[in-house]
Design goal:
The complex is a heterodimer of chains A (about 325) and B (about 160).
Chain A lengths: L18 E7 L12 H4 L12 E13 L2 E7 L4 E9 L2 E7 L4 H8 L4 E4 L18 E2 L8 E3 L13 E6 L6 E3 L6 E3 L11 H5 L3 E8 L2 E4 L12 E10 L10 E8 L5 E11 L5 E7 L2 E12 L2 E2 L6 E2 L2 E5 L7
Antiparallel strand pairs in A: 1-2, 1-15, 2-5, 3-4, 5-18, 6-14, 7-14, 8-13, 9-12, 9-14, 10-11, 12-13, 15-16, 16-18, 16-21, 17-18, 19-20
Chain B lengths: L1 H18 L4 E4 L2 E4 L1 E3 L14 E11 L6 E12 L10 H15 L4 E6 L6 E9 L3 E2 L3 E3 L2 E13 L6
Parallel strand pairs in B: 3-4
Antiparallel strand pairs in B: 1-2, 4-5, 5-10, 6-7, 7-10, 8-10, 9-10
Helix pairs in contact in B: 1-2
Classes of the chains: A mainly beta (about 325), B alpha+beta (about 160).
Chain lengths: ~325, ~160
């Protein structure tokens, strides 16, 4: 048996027009990042990333920076470098999100990112949102895209509204938030023992496409999957972040550069934390109309590569196209 | 460059046939999808209406790479006077429909380079790829609305290619 011979291989430059970003939660409690294995799933469909990766679309102004440094050990007169030592290992990555949504805004902000819960009437004004209306209890039979509710709770919701779905805050300390560690609570007093606090910071949000007799049909799946017992739902009006805040979000990230000849360059950062506050950029479309993008800048934190025990902060993979000599 | 030009044209032709089977032209007695390569057809005094006419203009070659990279400018001309049924009053809509079709058939922005001078056609090793379309301002001449859209097409020269 033989295969057909291909004689036309060439060495080709890498040509690319854009970069796509995928993020996945880090389990902060157990300090487990989401690991992307390019040998197993490197050729994934860009429009359908494997779980737990979340597609955040094409990004712009993508830039990587090595913050590692190498020193030398010198000896002799005159001094001559005899050995090299790695003094610092580090990396940063920055880019701009083209679109605004819960995840892109939260990632770019880097600290607690809050949902603006629909306020109860007469509540005291507050920069990150007033006290919300009473939540509705999520009933059994719910899924990641259907929130089952009692008929009496439906009035607070309408098609097109947005909702946050999570458990009550009940005095717990540490990381909170279903699906994603959205904040770190140091004490109940710090969050006013507010039962809505977790829903206020939760990433478990979605838009409602339809209100049915049995509950809410969601236009997008909840990030934490099917709601668990004890979760409640509240309508939200939008999102808010702040300059300030003590919490660092942490995410795993994959950036894909698809080449024009079918090759693919993949950058995987298992642990990223924001290294700047909320900031925007504007591009003029036709004055005075501007497109506003979200600036994001992250510092890479280390993981241990189980293949050799090395501490690393980033993996760069290259999957050559079929016509390229390697 | 001929394989790249042929590939680009056939890709757009096939995509147009799938997208809008009703956009057709009868050339030399044969009904075909409504897109033609100008340099491969007889010279005509007036551009046919309601079809896309592909015209190749500029050419640059980067010979500093391991494989020469050709960069070809393609102009796609199209003109319409609307439909007789509506007395031409729908010519604006007709041009917008052609704008939309062209934008659609240009995506995705690449295709496997193919040698169509052989029968059957032979797939080559590299891909032809192109940039974003640049739609020019619409021009009006009598009852006709016309637009030219420019697309820069790239292709690596493979062994044995001119």
């Amino acid at each position: 048996m033989s295969t057909s011979v291909v004689t036309n291989y060439a060495v080709l430059p890498m040509l690319n027009r854009r970069v796509r970003a995928y993020f996945a939660p880090v389990n902060r409690l157990q300090q487990l990042p989401s690991i992307f294995d390019p040998s197993q799933i490197g050729e994934f469909s860009l429009d359908a990333p494997p779980a737990p990766w979340i597609d955040l679309g094409w990004i712009e102004n993508f830039g990587r920076k090595s913050m590692s440094s190498v020193g030398s050990l010198n000896s002799g007169v005159p001094s001559i470098a005899q050995y090299q030592v790695r003094e610092v290992t580090g990396a940063a990555v920055s880019f701009r999100f083209k679109v605004w949504n819960k995840l892109t805004m939260a990632l770019a902000a880097g600290s607690q990112h809050m949902n603006l819960i629909q306020p109860a009437s007469g509540g005291a004004a507050n920069g990150s949102g007033a006290e919300g209306i009473a939540p509705a209890i999520v009933q059994a039979g719910s899924s990641s895209t259907i929130i089952a509710l009692n008929a009496g709770d439906l009035a607070a919701f309408s098609a097109g509204c947005m909702v946050t779905v999570d458990i009550d805050y009940a005095g717990q300390t540490g990381f909170v938030g279903s699906g994603v560690s959205a904040a770190y609570v140091r004490s109940a007093a710090a969050v006013n023992n507010d039962p809505d606090y977790i829903r206020r910071v939760s990433f478990n949000v979605a838009r409602v496409s339809q209100v049915t007799a049995g509950g809410l049909q969601l236009a997008q799946p909840l990030l934490a999957g099917a709601p668990v017992s004890g979760m409640k739902v509240q309508p939200i009006t939008g999102f808010v972040d702040r300059e300030g805040g003590s919490f660092f979000q942490e995410w795993s990230a994959v950036f894909v550069m698809p080449g024009e000849q079918g090759e693919r360059v993949i950058f995987h950062y298992p642990r990223l934390q924001a290294m700047q506050g909320a900031e925007e950029s504007s591009d003029t479309l036709a004055a005075p109309l501007e497109r506003i993008s979200l600036n994001a800048s992250f510092r890479a934190l280390p993981v241990t590569d189980s293949n050799d025990g090395e501490q690393v902060v980033c993996f760069r993979s290259f999957l050559p196209g079929s016509a390229t000599l390697i | 460059m001929e394989n790249a030009k042929d590939t680009f044209y056939v890709t757009l032709r096939n995509r147009l046939a799938a997208l809008n089977p009703n956009r057709v032209i009868i050339l030399r007695g044969v009904q075909r999808p409504g897109i033609l390569m100008e340099e491969a057809e007889a010279v005509v005094p007036q551009m046919p209406a309601d079809v896309f006419v592909v015209r190749w203009t500029g050419l640059e070659v980067d010979g500093q790479l391991p494989s020469a990279l050709a960069q070809m400018m393609c102009e796609i001309h199209y003109t319409t006077g609307g439909t007789q049924t509506n007395g031409g009053l729908d010519r604006g809509r007709a041009l917008e429909e052609m704008d939309g079709e062209l934008f659609s058939i240009l995506s995705p922005n690449s295709a496997q380079k193919t040698n169509y001078t052989q029968r059957p056609a032979v797939a080559m090793e590299t891909k032809v790829f192109w940039g974003e379309p640049q739609f020019s301002a619409m021009t009006t001449q009598r009852e006709r609305l016309t637009r030219v859209t420019k697309v820069t097409v790239f292709a690596f020269q493979e062994q044995g290619e001119l």
